[in-house]
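> forwarded from #structure-qc
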């Protein structure tokens, strides 16, 4: 009789419970280390807690010092922060662009930075 074993590995956000990424792989499956690696590539943090990209953005906005000082910044349709522009420009300031909550944050560059 054929024996088929498939191991599923799933990564869930510790905050919102959303499923981030998952695999069904025959054999021994994917290691937790690799699962965490791919979750980070999806914009998650994988410390003691797994926190998805959306929750990271929400938490970052709550902690944002600029918003505390200058009031709430706008959000785009996906919930990303539009940041603060300078007096003469709507383009978000550099500090905002480097923030993961910002709509202008370069997630592709972040992905590359985290790539092996
Ligand atoms: Zn989440």
């Amino acid at each position: 009789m054929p024996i088929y074993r498939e191991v599923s590995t799933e990564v869930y956000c510790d905050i919102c419970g959303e499923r981030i990424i998952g695999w069904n792989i025959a054999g021994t499956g994917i290691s937790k280390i690799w699962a965490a690696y791919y979750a980070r590539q999806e914009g998650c943090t994988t410390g003691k807690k797994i926190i998805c990209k959306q929750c990271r953005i929400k938490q970052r906005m709550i902690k944002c010092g600029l918003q505390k000082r200058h009031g709430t910044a706008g959000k785009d349709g996906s919930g990303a922060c539009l940041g603060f522009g300078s007096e003469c420009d709507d383009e978000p300031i550099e500090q905002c662009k480097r923030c993961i909550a910002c709509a202008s944050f370069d997630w592709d560059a972040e992905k590359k930075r985290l790539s092996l």
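QC bot note: The mean pLDDT is 92. The pocket of zinc ion is lined by residues 13, 15-16, 18, 52, 54-55 (CB under 6 Å).
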